[in-house]
Amino acid sequence: MDIKTNLIATAERLFDRNGFSATGMDRLTQEAGLSSRTLYKHVGSKTALMALVLGARERRFMERLDVQSVDEIFDVLGQWTRDEGGRGCLFLRSYGETGGDIPEIANVVLTHKDATRAKIAEIVQRDLGAGDHGELTEQILVLFEGAVAAAVYRGMDAISAARKAAAILVAQARS
Amino acid sequence: MDIKTNLIATAERLFDRNGFSATGMDRLTQEAGLSSRTLYKHVGSKTALMALVLGARERRFMERLDVQSVDEIFDVLGQWTRDEGGRGCLFLRSYGETGGDIPEIANVVLTHKDATRAKIAEIVQRDLGAGDHGELTEQILVLFEGAVAAAVYRGMDAISAARKAAAILVAQARS
DNA sequence: GACAGTGTAAAACGATCGTTTTACACTGTG
DNA sequence: CACAGTGTAAAACGATCGTTTTACACTGTC
């Protein structure tokens, strides 16, 4: 595998499992199987590596979220959580750990949240037909965000609860 | 004010604004206006201080959450966010930063989440009358958690969306 | 067969981390 | 006045942080 790709994947795993600050560069180089010199040649700095990790995750996530109905949104989330484990939104976690003070990271996070909201709006639109669905979109977004957060301690139950709630809200909006 | 109380309040502010790892003990002693020797005499270690901060927040939060209806839950959350700012759930953030690996902290976090869920169950019960409302409770919990998380980037809109969604789910469960 | 490029291994950089220690001032009590 | 208790100020602890440097091996190309 490409050095940089492998490095970013390893960093994503460690950041997600142990936290950003708690993951030292020594641990990272060791687990990625490369020297610190090579690491810095490829990514420049730890902050840049964090941004790269989030960027890669964003692309992977958006690929998966390309669905047609509100119901499927929560299917995708269930699969994601089963595959990758539910330790909370890595974007919000990076934002929290840095206090939102590092523009390089804050930008990626806020852009990702904008994109997620836009994608949900698009799905709601497709599901409900033409009309203003701003309120429903915000509700689905909150359910999605809540399912991610609550899954940390409630597991899959949180996700199926969100899914059922979303179905009720969609039905209600249709009538 | 009592030294320890003031220290914990200062630590809560700094941890919340800048993150746990990113907040050094020097910064803390400086802002709390005491020597590091006094700090360590009173709280023992940074980890213990984190647990104390979370414990204090838990008591303050549970006091506020002592309401009678589902609707009021989101009123409380709105006030909390207006008063203290919405930077995400400090419990989940502490859990994420430490990878859930520090028992002293993981315990406080999971206990808090259990208590929150129990409190919501109690409110739902009072609101809906006797019967099994496990499903609705999980849905309200997810909406609550989602409102907290989404408020980081959507502000109060996330909270009022959660409130409206909860009202619909409650009405649906009543019929 | 020199050479530029890219990699590793490992030591070292200064800075900062959480924590402890030393030295000293102030307080109330016997 | 002695004294134990509690506080501050500040230096120092060893450890670890992110990052850079030194020294060297391997690779493909002219």
Automatic annotation (TrEMBL), chains A, B:
Pfam families tied to this protein: TetR_N
Gene3D superfamilies: Tetracycline Repressor, domain 2 (1.10.357.10)
Record domain HTH tetR-type: where: 1-61
DNA-binding region location: 24-43
Keywords for this protein: DNA-binding, Transcription, Transcription regulation
InterPro entries named in the record: Homeodomain-like_sf (IPR009057), HTH_TetR (IPR001647), Tet_transcr_reg_TetR-rel_C_sf (IPR036271)
The protein, known as: TetR family transcriptional regulator
Organism for this UniProt entry: Thalassospira xianhensis MCCC 1A02616
Taxonomic path: Bacteria, Pseudomonadati, Pseudomonadota, Alphaproteobacteria, Rhodospirillales
